[in-house]
C-alpha cells in the first residue's frame, strides 16, 4: 500500500474520566461565579487573567511537562480532556492557551536552563501569556520569506521589522518569533531564519490592534524598532529555524480546538428542535453528530500516537484539514436546519446570535495555524506525490 | 492491532492476493476464480470466524473477524465472505450450529420484516439481500408474537428474485411463504433487528474503509505514472489536493469503522447508546466517504477508470453499493438524530466525549 495511514481506536484511559469530572465541576463553578457565559461564543473578548491563574492552580497548565519546571508529568491524553472540556464550555482560554500548547514545548526543547526555570513555572501557574510571531506583511503561508531582521550586536541582536496577524500580542508577556539572521542560500531558501524569545511590553516594540470582521480586536501588527534581544534568548540553532518548525506542528494541528471552534451552534440547534424533531432536522443532526464523533475519534487517535512518542505529521494535517473545513461549514449547515425551528423555541434568540457570530468566525478557521492549501501540500508529500 | 488480529488478517491477505487478484478477476468473465477462492477461505476457517468450535466454526474473536473484513474490503472481495460471517454470528447468538457453505442474512434492510407464524413457519419478504442467490442457507431474524427469534433456513425453500446490485454482485429479493426453518430459537434478551442492522452496518463500514484505502493506493500510483502536459499528473497541485482529500476521506472512514468495530468487540451488551452512536456514525461517515472518495478516485483516473477493463470500478461501485445494505446513511442519520434529540442538548457532548 502506498499510504499506510493509521488511525487506531485509542480510548482515553479511566483516569481521564475522573479528571473530566473535575474539569466540568470547576467550569460549572466558574460559570456560576460569572467568570464567563457558556452561551456567549466570543470568549476571545474575555481576557481573564484570574481565571488563568485558577486553571494553573488546578495543575492543568503544562500538564505534560517535567515537575521541576512546574509541570505534572501527566499524559497527552489527560491534557486532551482538559482542552476539549474548556473548548466545549466556551471558557476564556486566551491567556494561557498558546503558552500551554505551543510556546512552553518550544522553550522546553530549545531554551537555556535558566530561562526554562524562570518562565515555565510561571506558565504553569497561569501567569504569563504568549504570542507567536510568524507572519509578516509579505510572508504568511510562505514562512521562509520572512524579512524582519535580527542584526548581531554586542551581547545580542537588534530587531527591526514588522510581524502581523499576531494573536494576543496586545496582552502577551512574551512572543516566540522567527527573525532573519542571514539571507537564504541558493541551495536552501529556508536557511537564515532564527527562532527567538522576545519579551513584550518593552520600548522598541509597538503593538497596533487590527479590527476583525467579527468586531473583535484579537490580532495585531507588531512593529520592532532597534529592539534588543540578548544572546541567551536565541532558541535553537542560529539560521536553522526551519529544522525546528515541522515536527512540533503535529501538536498544534490535531487537537480538539481544530474541530470544536463552532461546536456550540450544534448544541443550541439540538435544544431548539426539541424532543421530537421532524425527519429533516433529525437527519441533519444525525449526520453532524456522526461527523463530529468521527473527527474526535481521529483526533484522539493522533493524541495517542503523540503519547506513544510518534510524529504523526501527516495524520495531524489530515485532522486539521477535515476538522477546520467541518467547523467552518457547521454554522451554515445548522443555519439550513434552523430555518424550520419553531418561532416558540425558547433559545431561538441565543441560537441566532451564535449563528451570526459563528458565520463571521468561519472564514478564519481554514487560514489560521496553517491554511488548507498548505496542509494538503503536506498530505500530498506524505502520499509520495511531491 | 493485537498480534492475533494481525495473524488472521495476514492469512486473509495472503489468500486474497493469491486467489482474488483484482486484475485477474476483472478479466475472468466466467467466474472460474470463485470456487478455489471459497475453498481456500473455508480451509482457513474464515467464513465461520465468528462461530465457536462447538457450533461448527473456527472460534475467532470479534476483533479478528473485523480485521479480516477490512482486508476483504481492500480487495473488494466478490464472494459472500462478510455475509457468511455475519450469518454465522447471528446464528451463534441463539446457539444454532452453522452449516457448511455460503450463507447470508435476512432481513438486510431495517424496513423489512420476517414473521414467525403460529405454526413455527416463517413468512415475509426481504429486499436487497446480498448474495442470496449464491447462498445455501439463510440466517433469519424473525419477529413473532412472543418476541424475536433467530432461524436457520434452507435457501432452496425460499423464492429468490435475483438481480445485480450496483457493485455487480447478487442483490436479491427473498420471499418466504410459510417456510419451515431447519431450526428456530429465541434471540437473547435485548437482541432485535436494530442490533442486527448495527452489526451489519459496521461490517459494511469496514469494507468501505478498505475499498477506500485501495482506491487511494491505486489513484496515487496512477497519478505517479500518467503523464499529461509533459509531466506526471501527480505534480499538478489540483491533483495533489484532490488526492489529499481522498486520503482524508479514507482516513475518516477507517477511523470511524475501526472505532465502531472496537466498541462492539469490547462491549458487554450491544443494547446501549455507545454502541448505537459508534455503529450508526460509522455507517453514516463511511457512506459519505464512499461518495466523496470514489468521486475523486474516478476524477484522478479520467476516462480509463470509467472502463470495464480497469479495476477501479471493482472498488468504487462496491463502496457505493455497500452504503445501501443494513440501513443507508440517511436512515441511520434520522435514527441517530432522534436519539440525540430525545436525550436533549445537554447530553450531546457527554455522549460524544464518552467515546
Automatic annotation (TrEMBL), chain A:
Keywords: FAD, Flavoprotein, Oxidoreductase. Residues 131-225 form the Acyl-CoA oxidase/dehydrogenase middle domain. GO terms for cellular component: plasma membrane. The keyword Transcription regulation does not apply. One of its GO terms (molecular function) is acyl-CoA dehydrogenase activity. Its cofactor is FAD. Transmembrane segments: none annotated. Residues 14-127 form the Acyl-CoA dehydrogenase/oxidase N-terminal domain. Gene3D superfamilies: Acyl-CoA dehydrogenase/oxidase, N-terminal domain (1.10.540.10), Butyryl-CoA Dehydrogenase, subunit A, domain 2 (2.40.110.10), Butyryl-CoA Dehydrogenase, subunit A, domain 3 (1.20.140.10). PANTHER family: ACYL-COA DEHYDROGENASE (PTHR43292), ACYL-COA DEHYDROGENASE FADE34 (PTHR43292:SF4). This is Acyl-CoA dehydrogenase. It comes from Bradyrhizobium uaiense. The lineage of its organism: Bacteria, Pseudomonadati, Pseudomonadota, Alphaproteobacteria, Hyphomicrobiales.
Amino acid at each position: 500500500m502506498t499510504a499506510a495511514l493509521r488511525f487506531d481506536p485509542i480510548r482515553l484511559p479511566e483516569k481521564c474520566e475522573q479528571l473530566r469530572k473535575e474539569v466540568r465541576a470547576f467550569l460549572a463553578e466558574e460559570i456560576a461565579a460569572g467568570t464567563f457565559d457558556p452561551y456567549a461564543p466570543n470568549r476571545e473578548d474575555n481576557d481573564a487573567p484570574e481565571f488563568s491563574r485558577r486553571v494553573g492552580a488546578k495543575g492543568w497548565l503544562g500538564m505534560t511537562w517535567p515537575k521541576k519546571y512546574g509541570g505534572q508529568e501527566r499524559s497527552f491524553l489527560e491534557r486532551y480532556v482538559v482542552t476539549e472540556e474548556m473548548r466545549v464550555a466556551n471558557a476564556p482560554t486566551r491567556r494561557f492557551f498558546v503558552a500551554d500548547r505551543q510556546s512552553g514545548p518550544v522553550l522546553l526543547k530549545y531554551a537555556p536552563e535558566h530561562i526554562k526555570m524562570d518562565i515555565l513555572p510561571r506558565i504553569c501557574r497561569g501567569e504569563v501569556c504568549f504570542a507567536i510571531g510568524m507572519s509578516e506583511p509579505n510572508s504568511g503561508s510562505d514562512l521562509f520569506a520572512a524579512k524582519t531582521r535580527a542584526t548581531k550586536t554586542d551581547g545580542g541582536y537588534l530587531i527591526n521589522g514588522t510581524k502581523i496577524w499576531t494573536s494576543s500580542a496586545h496582552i502577551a508577556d512574551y512572543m516566540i518569533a522567527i527573525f532573519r539572521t542571514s539571507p537564504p542560500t541558493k541551495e536552501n531558501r529556508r536557511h537564515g531564519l532564527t527562532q527567538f524569545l522576545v519579551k513584550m511590553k518593552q520600548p522598541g516594540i509597538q503593538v497596533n490592534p487590527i479590527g476583525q470582521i467579527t468586531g473583535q480586536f484579537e490580532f495585531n501588527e507588531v512593529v520592532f524598532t532597534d529592539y534588543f534581544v540578548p544572546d541567551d534568548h536565541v532558541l535553537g540553532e542560529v539560521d536553522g529555524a526551519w529544522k525546528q518548525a515541522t515536527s512540533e506542528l503535529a501538536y498544534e494541528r490535531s487537537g480538539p480546538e481544530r474541530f470544536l471552534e463552532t461546536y456550540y451552534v450544534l448544541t443550541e440547534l439540538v435544544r431548539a428542535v426539541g424532543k421530537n424533531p421532524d425527519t429533516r432536522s433529525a437527519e441533519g443532526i444525525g449526520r453532524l453528530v456522526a461527523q463530529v464523533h468521527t473527527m474526535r475519534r481521529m483526533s484522539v487517535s493522533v493524541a495517542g500516537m503523540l503519547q506513544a512518542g510518534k510524529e504523526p505529521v501527516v495524520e495531524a494535517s489530515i485532522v486539521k484539514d477535515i476538522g477546520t473545513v467541518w467547523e467552518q461549514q457547521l454554522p451554515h449547515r445548522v443555519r439550513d436546519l434552523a430555518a424550520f425551528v419553531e418561532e416558540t423555541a425558547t433559545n431561538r434568540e441565543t441560537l441566532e446570535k451564535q449563528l451570526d457570530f459563528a458565520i463571521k468566525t468561519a472564514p478564519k478557521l481554514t487560514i489560521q495555524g496553517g491554511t488548507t492549501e498548505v496542509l494538503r501540500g503536506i498530505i500530498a508529500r506524505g502520499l509520495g506525490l511531491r | 492491532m493485537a498480534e492475533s488480529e494481525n495473524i488472521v488478517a495476514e492469512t486473509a491477505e495472503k489468500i486474497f492476493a493469491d486467489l482474488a487478484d483484482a486484475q485477474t478477476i476483472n478479466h475472468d468473465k466466467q467466474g472460474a476464480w470463485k470456487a478455489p477462492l471459497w475453498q481456500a477461505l473455508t480451509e482457513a476457517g474464515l467464513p465461520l470466524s465468528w462461530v465457536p468450535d462447538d457450533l461448527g466454526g473456527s472460534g475467532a474473536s470479534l476483533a479478528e473477524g473485523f480485521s479480516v473484513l477490512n482486508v476483504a474490503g481492500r480487495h473488494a472481495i466478490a464472494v459472500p465472505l462478510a455475509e457468511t460471517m455475519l450469518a454465522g454470528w447471528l446464528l451463534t447468538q441463539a446457539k444454532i450450529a452453522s452449516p457448511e457453505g455460503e450463507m447470508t442474512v435476512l432481513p438486510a434492510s431495517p424496513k423489512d420484516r420476517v414473521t414467525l407464524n403460529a405454526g413455527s413457519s416463517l413468512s415475509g419478504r426481504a429486499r436487497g439481500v446480498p448474495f442470496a442467490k449464491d447462498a445455501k442457507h439463510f440466517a433469519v431474524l424473525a419477529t413473532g408474537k412472543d418476541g424475536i427469534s433467530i432461524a436457520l433456513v434452507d435457501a432452496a425453500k425460499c423464492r429468490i428474485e435475483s438481480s445485480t446490485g450496483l457493485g455487480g454482485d447478487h442483490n436479491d429479493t427473498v420471499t418466504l411463504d410459510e417456510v419451515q426453518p431447519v431450526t428456530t430459537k429465541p434471540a437473547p434478551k435485548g437482541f432485535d433487528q436494530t442490533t442486527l442492522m448495527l452489526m451489519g452496518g459496521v461490517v459494511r463500514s469496514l469494507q468501505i474503509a478498505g475499498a477506500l484505502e485501495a482506491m487511494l493506493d491505486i489513484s496515487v500510483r496512477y497519478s505517479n505514472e500518467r503523464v499529461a502536459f509533459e509531466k506526471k499528473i501527480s505534480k499538478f497541485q489540483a491533483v495533489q489536493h484532490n488526492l489529499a482529500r481522498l486520503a482524508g476521506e479514507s482516513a475518516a472512514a477507517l477511523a470511524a469503522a475501526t472505532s465502531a468495530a472496537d466498541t462492539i468487540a469490547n462491549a458487554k451488551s450491544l443494547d446501549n447508546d455507545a454502541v448505537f452512536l459508534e455503529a450508526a456514525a460509522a455507517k453514516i461517515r463511511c457512506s459519505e466517504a464512499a461518495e466523496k472518495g470514489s468521486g475523486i478516485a474516478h476524477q484522478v483516473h479520467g476516462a480509463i477508470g470509467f472502463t470495464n477493463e480497469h479495476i477501479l470500478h471493482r472498488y468504487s461501485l462496491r463502496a457505493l453499493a455497500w452504503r445501501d445494505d443494513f440501513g443507508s446513511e440517511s436512515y441511520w442519520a434520522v435514527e441517530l438524530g432522534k436519539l440525540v434529540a430525545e436525550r436533549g442538548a445537554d447530553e450531546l457532548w457527554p455522549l460524544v466525549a464518552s467515546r
